[in-house]
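Run folding on both entries below.
>entry_1
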Amino acid sequence: MQRIGIVGAGTMGHGIAQVCAMAGYEVILADARPEALAHALEQVRANLDKGVARGKVSEQIRATALDRLSTGSLQQASRGAELVIEAVPERLELKQQLFAQIEAVAPEGAILATNTSSLSIASIGAKLADRGRLIGTHFFNPVHIMALLEVVVADATRPGVLEAIEQLGARIGKEVIVVKDRPGFATSRLGVCLGMEAIRMVEEDVASPEDIDKAMVLGYRHPIGPLRLTDLVGLDVRMHIGTHLARELGNRAFEPPELMRSMVAEGRLGKKSGRGFYDWEG
């Protein structure tokens, strides 16, 4: 595998593009919004510059990664690619439409991968002519730092597709876990449940967000508390996932608390809006 197309240049898309280019793949990043592509390249350069400044990335790797990364249309990213990764917002219809467009252009043997964090792989691929080449590749933010790649296998996914993605994971320096196509997979199902309960604890005035997070960091050795993590992921994103999982699993533990709904309505989405459970201004 030498050429990878990535559709969606947001936070996850440009991060995936960066790590793939750093690992030696030729990468074409696509997005319908030109401004998103420009911002994505700026972010990749900033990440690489920071890595060089900290001694984590060599000047040569920085230069070659930028040389291997280009931008283009969905058709350009898909045509000739051996792997196409979709990294657009968590809306089933949007992902289905994109994969229909990708499948019409991508080579017959190309692997198709979705970066969904909770949607069914089988549902995303329901309209594909060849469902066996679709697999879930759930990356974590920030992609260039987080070590995990959660690979999600649907019933129709061919064994050779899984093997190829496991090899990709090793080449880009990720620890790969393989899970079946069940609601929430492994990470979202556990993480979102914990996050919703932490929000209910704030709602019930059990303790402050800072102390709840500190309890999990110091008491259970979590690298980050559930409320700070919710701020980083985005309250709106987690609320959407929680609503989906509550419905799919029939489990009210995933239902977004009223506090979360009111914060999203007020625009308090976490780090990206400057304020969530924490103040991120400045």
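>entry_2
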Amino acid sequence: MMKVRKAVIPAAGFGTRFLPATKVVPKELLPVVDKPTIQYIMEEVASSGIEEVILITGREKGSIEDHFDTSTELEEHLRKKKRMDLLRMVQRISEMVTLVSVRQKEPLGLGHAILCAKKVVGQEPFAVLLGDDLIDAERPCIRQMIDIYQKMDGALLAIQKVPKTETHLYGIIRGRRVSDRVYRVEEMVEKPKQGTAPSNLAIIGRYILPPQIFGILEKVSPDPRGEIQLTDGLRELSQRLPVFGYEFIGDRYDAGDKLGYLQANISLGLKHPELGPKLKRYLKELSGKS
């Protein structure tokens, strides 16, 4: 089994759910507590032993690359001010991973975004992490998945049980449990109509995919909106290779949703060593006023 050395992070969307905040600021750079959303994703990648990130970007997303680049002027300013703690923090960000940027010229769906990484990924398995899904876990989610993937052949999807009233918001699988927290996927439905979902096991934004997915995505027909959906590609892949779902351990926040974004700020803020105690006191005061 080949080692998972590369990760693809799609970041070409417009972030329309967060307008007007995202009119000039990419949604991936909106802060959760004191770090941009995408930095949490990069930290998960780096702490999982992945060596290279392929960032799929769109127009006016250059500031994402800038965040992970060296900032000579800022570093020199911090050095002169003897703010060595902040200097080390800034340097760690630029040293986190090797970053390759690929432009997705049109936002034509998640499947198309992944297809844009074909030449850089090559013929080896790779991880995909969606920036909207923040997963707070003692052992990084993608590291958990790599450990599971090394024991199997095929593809691996992160899954999570969701309320039955919310299954229409997700891709849903029907699967047969094959080991602890692992299911062999037998059916995948993208955002089923309410009451028709085959289970409450939802696909969450973490994947480990074999290189065969690229040839399949090249032939997938666009949906009615003209987009190439990854779920359609995975459905076809499952006819050739096993596809598994892994019920990861950790707390997931949908940072692409306004409520989920606020929940992430509160939950991670409470864990922040400096802000946590103050935020806890404030929330207690706020609760007492309601």
